[in-house]
Amino acid sequence: MKEIPSSTQSSKSAAKILTALAGGFLVLTASATSSGAQTFNRAFAVSPERSELEVVNQTGTIKVTAGANPNKIVINARHGDGAAKVEATQNAMGKVKVEVTGRGRVDFEIAVPASSSIDLLSYQGAIVVTNLAGAVRARVTEGDIQIAGLRSARVDASCSQGNVSFSGEVLPSGRYTLKSFSGRVDAILPADADFKLSASSFRGGMDLGEFQMKFDKYSSQLVEASHGAGRASISLWTQEGSIHLRRKP
Amino acid sequence: MECRAVVSSLSDYLDGRNIWASDDEVEQIETHLANCPACRNLKLELSEIKNAARELPLHTPAPALWARISKGIEAEISIENGPARETQKGSGWWGWLNSRKFTFSLPQLAAAGAFAAFLMVAGISDIFGDKSSQLKFRDVQSLLLLPEEDEIKANLERRLGAINARKAQWDSQRRADFEQRLNRIDESLKRCRHMLEDNPKDAWGQQTVRALYDEKRQLLEDVERLKW
For residue B4, what is the enclosing H or E element? Predict the structure, then answer.
């Protein structure tokens, strides 16, 4: 049997790969066209010391993370064929505001300087914040909030219907408020975190895990306690869900 | 304070009947509870029983029950009065009441008149008044449980009023969704306020009511920021 030269074989393989890629590209293009998905991309120059971002979204996910460029806020959004309209503006102080009006889902992926202060609102949809060091305010009416890898002194996360989870450093002067009306509240803190805790759950119960704390008040519904010198303030509240406090492994 | 003393006052403490006690005594009980796991557990169990009892549904007695009770009273009266009953005008309670002689002083008559007038006004407003005015009337009458509650309520009403004015432009799904969320918070608020009424000094109860008012404010603020 005559052997096919290896060069011929490789050129045939390359042709197959190209055909497959071209086919894949066509399929992707077709799906993007048929779903009517649109993108919104904008970048704003900011000062890393005073970078501020506000996002108000009707429906959809907002993901914000520390970007590689410390002088830019980069916004990427994808939205369907609904009537949603995305607007991004920057005021004289450098604050960037992104606002969605009209109905329809919009998903954001935003990169900001790590020290940015952010203020996020989504009526329906999750909020995910990672690796930031500035003040974080996150509010979801229906959906989860996940905050991870934070080194921030001010965190205020609240949802009406959904779970809230926080994992990050606890700075001595920090104030951390995590609330959910009907969901679960999770906080994962370093073993040496120095904080004063106020945790209140009306009906879901509490699991305060492995922290050896000094209790001022203790019941199944309310705990007031401190760990270390009690310098930072941590407030956890849920009306109908449960509270879980754990040490970072 | 010793365990025995705390245990004997625990039930009153949980029922909010400790309002006669001085702040020092309440503080002593709370300090003891913070340091004594056994008493703390007992308190926990008692409050769980109390909360569970509160969740039990209220039963309205059947109309027949009152009929049986009234017959029983009438029978008792007839036994007490014996043959003299025959001379009374009419029969039953009305007859019995008619047979009595009542005398009233002027202040008593004035108080009775004022009470009758109040009942009449309340009755008329109940029949002819619209529902919203009734709710406002009851709301104003309700006890203020937090020092700043008036201010909180005024702020919420103002915001809700502005939202209600725009609500007609929303689609039905959005309106239903918003109202459902608001009702859910209001239900919790109502329940927690009732609990706080039982024990107005309970710091945790106050904290919970404040948190629920804040949750309501937050929902209204969401809608404002979303520009609905």
Answer: helix B3-15
Q: For residue A219, give the 3-state DSSP assignment.
A: coil
B48 touches chain A (CB under 8 A): yes
DSSP summary character for residue B164: H
CB-nearest partner of B44 from A181, A220, A239? A220
ipTM above 0.90, yes or no: no
Q: What is the dihedral of CA B55, A206, A130, A78, to 10 degrees?
A: -20
Collect all residues of chain A within an 8 Å Cβ-Cβ radius of residue B187: none
Rounded CA separation B169/B165 (Å): 9
- The residue of A54, A140, A217, A243 whose CB has the most chain B CBs within 10 angstroms, and thus the best one to mutate to test that interface, is A217
Distance of CA B31 to the CA centre of its chain: 30
What is the mean predicted confidence (pLDDT) over A119-135? 97
Are the CB atoms for A142 and A183 separated by under 8 Å? Answer: no
Shortest distance, CA B191 to any CA of chain A (angstroms): 11
Mean per-residue pLDDT of chain A:
88
DSSP strand pairing (A243-247 vs A185-189): parallel
Residue A204, classified by CB atoms within 10 Å of its CB into exposed (0-12), middle (13-18) or buried (19+), is buried
Cβ-based neighbour number of residue A32 at 10 Å:
13
pTM > 0.90: yes or no: no
| Calpha distance A165→A62 (Å, rounded) | 15
CA–CA dist B116, B67 (Å, integer): 26
With a CB cutoff of 8 Å and minimum separation 6, the contacts of A215 are A223, A224, A225, B34
